[in-house]
Amino acid sequence: LAVLAVAVLTGCATTDVAEYTAEKPRLDLAQYFNGTIDGWGMFQDRSGKVVKRFYVRIDATWTGNEGTLDEHFEYADGEKQNRVWKLVKNGDGYSGTAADVVGSAQGTASGNALRWNYVLALPVDGRTWNMDMDDWMYLIDDKTMLNRTTMSKFGFRVGEVTLSFRKR
Fold first, then answer.
1. d(CA 108, CA 39)
2. What is the DSSP code (8-state) at residue 142?
3. Residues 12/108, Cβ–Cβ less than 8 Å
4. pLDDT by residue (tens digit) across 126-145?
5. pTM of the predicted model as reported, rounded to 2 decimal places
6. φ and ψ at residue 14, rounded to 5 degrees
7. Which 8-state DSSP code applies to residue 10?
8. CA 137/CA 114 separation, integer angstroms
9. Containing H/E element for 29?
10. Residue 81 and residue 59 in contact, taking contact as beta carbons nearer than 8 Å
């Protein structure tokens, strides 16, 4: 029973963003998300099946410690969606709001990484589900960022979003 408890607790452990402190290049959202960024991504369900593919164009601006990310999504099935993030930088931390985010997102940057946590109100089959989002961004170079998000509901993983960003 003790071995099982340790295995369960170890399986639930998450990486601390501070583990990336020494990684370069250093991620500053205000620097990277300033101008136009193109992104390509997919959503995989909990079995790993790709169920949505998309392109996103982000028009981003910053004034002081406040930023706006205007995201324009085009899905492979023809659906279009728009999300506007309002971000605030405070030290190594960030907070953000958007119309479909419940409350506010909270994030911490360290080295080349940022970890966001937020609740997304996601429409599914005529209903809205509040999904817990564990969102990680990794700056690869001054133009390239990778993003991986785990979506969960009631503590159970529902799926993952994988994105590749390229700054123009």
1. 22
2. S
3. no
4. 999 999 999 999 999 999 99
5. 0.89
6. -125, 155
7. H
8. 5
9. helix 29-32
10. no
